[in-house]
Write a structure and sequence with these properties.
The complex is a heterodimer of chains A (about 300) and B (about 525). Helices cover about 75% and strands about 5% of the residues of chain A. Chain A is mainly α and about 300 residues long. Helices cover about 45% and strands about 15% of the residues of chain B. The longest helix of chain B has 19 residues, at about 420-440. The chains are: A mainly alpha (about 300), B alpha/beta (about 525).
Chain lengths: ~300, ~525
Amino acid sequence: MPGVLILEQALNGLQFGLMLFLLAAGLTLVFGVMDMINLAHGSLYMVGAFVAAWLGALTGSFVLGVLGAVALTAVFGMVLEAGLLRTLYARDHLSQVLATFALILILNDGTKMVFGNDLPLSAPAALAGPVELLPGLIYPAYRLLIIGVGLALAVLLWLLVQKTRMGALVRAGASNREMATAMGTNIPRLFTAVFGIGAALCAVAGALLGPLLAVQVGMGENILILAFVVIVIGGIGSIRGALVGAILVGCIDTLGRTFLQHALRELLPPQWASAAGPAIASIAVYVFMAVVLAIKPQGLFPARG
Amino acid sequence: MPVARAMPLHTLPIHRSARLRASALTPASTRPSALAAAMQLAQLAQLLDFRHGVLLVMRRHRRDAHPHSPAPCDALHPVVTGDSRAGTDFARQIPTIAPPVIDAVDYAASDRKVRTMQQRSTPRFTALGLALSTAALAFGATGASAADKVKVGFVSTLSGPSSALGVDIRDGFLLAVKMNGGKLGGLPAEVIVSDDQFKPDVAKQQFEKDIKRDKVDFMTGVVFSNIMLAALPEALDSKTIYISPNAAPSSMAGKDCNPLFFAVAWPNDAYHEAAGQYANTRNLKSVYLVAPNYQAGKDSLAGFKRMFKGQVVGENYTKLGQLDYAAELAEIRAAKPQAVYIFLPGGMGINFIKQYVGAGLGKDTTLLLPGFSADQDVIGPVGGAMAGLFNTAHWSPDFTNAANVKFVAEFEKEYKRVPTLYASQGYDTALLIGAAVRDVKGKLDDQPAVLKALKAAKFDSVRGAFKFNTNNYPIQNYYVRTIGNDGKGGLINKSFNEPILKNHGDAYVQACAMK
């Protein structure tokens, strides 16, 4: 197997993983700090993508579309949290699942009513084509941008959580919420801010992935499942866990889809390989999650002590 | 008898108190609101077999005698509000296109709920209601007779990410009915539209409701093969004709063929066979294939390989619903084929095409598509990257036959968008039904004659020549289309004049027992 192919697949896995990280980071914060399962996280991602597409068409600039989408989705997320989701913190997880699932359905149809079933969103023309990184390694320029933005946001988030006061409050809230409340942090405002950050990260992911994937109603559900797998693997409440988990999931998914099929083709007769390959590829991530949970039930980097 | 004057006997309103108010207790002329309620409910009568009305009354009678603890209010039944105006509210809340949540109403549950929220009803009302329904029975009303209108049950995917297809088929169908003055074949047409929500079990329920409660003459509408195959037995077992405007799996073409099943669109493999033949004419020696890992995906690539004479350098089955094809595209680049053929319906195809062009593969490798991955519903989200791509289909918006020119013009005027091939299929289905009704002169009870008229298919299809094979699947031409500018700043499909496959049937007809 050519080295160029391996490198290209490694970059693909990294890119997919970093986008998953953006979603998983917000989700793990919400789950860790507020102890709320938020199924509507994928819908915030969808809203971010739609707003980016709409603003991009309105202003004619991709960058303005992305920035505008981030701001608007963050505001939307904070309004949603203050208005609706705040009532769910006291309730059990099942009620939260039911309520946020209802929110998915409402947001899906709401988006369809406001924007229509889908919107076109294209990468800026400068990045629409491939670049040659090494002799023989041709990689789409836009995916390199995604990797760059993903890494930058990971660093930014690390700085925020480790080096700022608010980050300290978030970490405290994630590891022991009752004690943090007893110590006098303004919990409602903290929660709103956390939710806003989560929504903003979703919007970045949605706006950046929009040109690659279809901006369609219902685009959030598929990626939401993977985001949950990531936070379970990484440890709930831990951003470091979300990053490591996301990159692992991205790489395993890519590996499963490519190298596993090659390996099977070497080992098994062709009709078995073509049947087993796709089947194993689709479950590889979940098998990995099961293995991690068997060995470390709290995830790889649990936030709670 | 005041009952006979106030409303047609064969209609029985669903809500007891409204019914009693409107008919038995007050003369129609002095209570306009009650009459309005009764008339609205009369319009709703199609939703309710009078038998249910009797059952409702009899249940009430039983419960009056044996009071029981109230059932909890069911969050899924918002319509039954429990106050005395509930009948009117109910009428207002059910639009003509009944959403499935309404159709899933368990009449027993709604009856319990009404009872718990209202005052206990007295035996006098119960007896009156019983008398009313007995009178209805005595007058032998059975609903609209088959000869004065034609009823079509239309079940399709109208919500969710895959709804664009179902919506188009419905719009094409309803446009044909509208263009014929609300009639099909000379008879007033009633089309009962329901949403299957992309779920086989919901589709089955909708079929059952349309067939058993509404007594439709024809069923049609389902987009996806898996959903259709789940719901089809409801129609076939009850001897209702099913006309498929889209799904046409190989099983129904071959060993499972049935005289009551008609496929108006194309056999599932057809576009892929046409693409395989087109690859031959373009002298493409090596092709890489991609399809989702499910039955239709496997069938599609089997269809392509049936016609294609070159070498298949790679066959990749991806996960159904997969979003990101970066890994597969890297494989394609490494395999260096001359062309890539994909079967990725809906959002999957949109994603793949965008990423394909973004990866720069479009320059050296030709991308071939089946028509449904290259129609207006894909061109919109993908945008300019679609320009110049080739695809195969049985219909194109630029066909010059008179029926098509009229169809495209009317569709654009009515719905403000270019019709997709799904819309053309819905339109053709309505024309086929109309032709059959016309040829049997409205005698829909004579099913053998209706089947014969359907098989003869004497209508002007927007695709040009159309005829049915012995297995009720079409024999028709398939064309190559390319995506070009429509002169208004957008993109549209343009067909090549010479069909790539002429009078092409399907590969499974030999296995069918019908001759």
